[in-house]
């Protein structure tokens, strides 16, 4: 029967109750070898091994630092120690045969503890209580419980091979901040000391590290295993200086269609530049130069590449581009006063429409308006946007006709404009 | 060593063969869990490996109360949570968790056959990291918000509100999946 759910929880629960993904084949081997090492480290055998090393170190310490009057005594100990170590190893090798034979282990432990006693100033009763029974019983118990196969492994590991520190990086160079991921491929090791060469360390198995500053760094790995310590390193991890996109938008107001814009680029060490002006036009010049042909709202994006391939970008949002006629517009007809010329200084609140002048937004800094009759006579000229044409030329009313005007000028913010048009002069009916 | 009890006993003694049997029995299922927490397979396998090592070393602590599989699942999920915290510390996740737009879902039902496990896995993994953790833990693992807030070290109300947003996102994505499937069907039949 088809299962149907109202709750997504039920859908997901049912789907994932038995959802399986097959792991890769090598995974079990990884787990198994880690388990083996752990087993070894936890086993009585390794404790025994560790103890004998401790004894050796302590004895050596005595040899080096005790005063002269016990030197003879000490040299005896030294000999003893040698025999102990020999016994220790033979004891390990004979374990298979000698399982549970307390008498073969006991003298060793006893003597070992004797040395400990001298070094550590412990009395005999105390040390018997503390050490001997625990060690002996544990080693026997371990041997009883484990099967033959595990013992073999332990014996193999008991002749330890030195650790092999090996690692690889996902990338050897990058741009600051550069994060390097390390793959640890070491063998026969169980603790790791990483030095990233910039004052930072880690003890993780597979660390990752982020370099904040440009430079050349050495990553070194000190691996410790049962067989000792070994070091390896990877030189010259190169962290490049990050590219830094730095541009300045010089315009405060909206742009005009047809206006030539220039965006200075202050970015340093640039190998490659790409400007995307947002209207499907691109450029690879250092400074951004463009003319928007269509009105609208645009986003300009600049991307830079350094010589080392580091990338950065800068974006200018919400660039408004308007047509010139949204900023300045002339009427297409006007009706001069029939009773004589009025002043060209018009009042925008007037409704008579007896002066020809533009409506505009913003501040005009430069302005020139010229008007021609169809015979090419310049009938009017003004360099003041607040002064328009009253329809008279040399104090004579001009006939009804179409006149051509040419205007150019500049809004504040260097928005230049220049266009022409025509206007019809109409006489009012009397 | 067929019987589970015996298998547990042998694993407690660190018997290598028993460990392998246990691994073979559960590795697929557990990797399926891990993949819900990290979608990248190698990363998921790292978690699985770590999880199994924990299972084998902590198995002594399993007292036999409750289901063994459930206990193991908890170990795996906890390993995934540890991994999540580690990655958070490394700032690996940069997700903007903004508000999710509410869409109307009236009496929407979901048929089991409509979605494959792989599709739902992708849906889960498309969620922002925090939502994903909460959805996995609450909806699938069945943890309570109180537990989740403790595990993820977040406020209980955060857990609740993020869960409801996660659900909304998932509904939306399931809707998309349905539509896509329908489209495909239509083009095939056409």
Amount of helix of chain A: 25-40%
The Rg value of chain A, from CA coordinates, equals 46 Å
Major beta-sheet overview of chain B: none
pLDDT < 50 runs, ≥5 residues of chain A: 50-157
Q: What is the 3D form of chain B? A: globular
Q: How many separate domains of chain A?
A: 4
What fraction strand of chain A?
A: 25-35%
The helix-and-strand class of chain A reads alpha+beta
Indicate the percent of residues in helices of chain B.
over 70%
What does the overall shape of chain A look like?
elongated
How is the biggest beta sheet of chain A arranged? 5 strands, mixed
Mean pLDDT of chain A, to the nearest integer, reads: 74
Q: How confident is the prediction overall: mean pLDDT of chain B?
A: 83
What structural class do helix, strand and pairing data of chain B support?
mainly alpha
Describe the structure.
Chain A is α+β, with helices and mostly antiparallel strands. Chain A folds into four domains: 26-158; 167-240, Immunoglobulin-like; 255-322, Immunoglobulins (Immunoglobulin-like, Sandwich), CATH 2.60.40; 326-425, Immunoglobulin-like, CATH 2.60.40. Chain A contains eight helices and 25 strands. Chain A has helices spanning 8-16, 26-42, 44-65, 71-93, 102-120, 124-130, 132-145, 148-158; strands at residues 4-5, 167-169, 173-175, 178-184, 191-195, 201-202, 208-211, 215-225, 228-240, 255-256, 260-263, 272-276, 282-283, 288-291, 296-305, 311-322, 328-329, 333-334, 359-360, 364-372, 378-382, 392-393, 396-397, 401-411, 415-425. A five-stranded mixed β-sheet of chain A has the order 3-9-8-5-6, with no helix packed on it. Chain A has a five-stranded mixed β-sheet with strand order 10-16-15-12-13, with no helix packed on it. Chain A has a five-stranded mixed β-sheet with strand order 18-25-24-20-21, with no helix packed on it. In chain A, strand 24 (401-411) and strand 25 (415-425) form a beta hairpin. The longest helix of chain A is centred in the N-terminal third of the chain and has 23 residues, at 71-93. Chain B has helices spanning 4-12, 16-37, 41-58, 68-89, 117-125, 129-140, 145-152, 156-189, and one strand spanning 110-111. Chain B is mostly helical. Chain B contains eight helices and one strand. Chain B has two domains: 1-94, Rna Polymerase Sigma Factor, Chain: A, CATH 1.10.1740; 95-190, Arc Repressor Mutant, subunit A (Orthogonal Bundle). Chain B is 71% helix and 1% strand. The interface between A and B is large, with 35 and 44 residues. Strand 1 of chain A pairs antiparallel with strand 1 (110-111) of chain B.
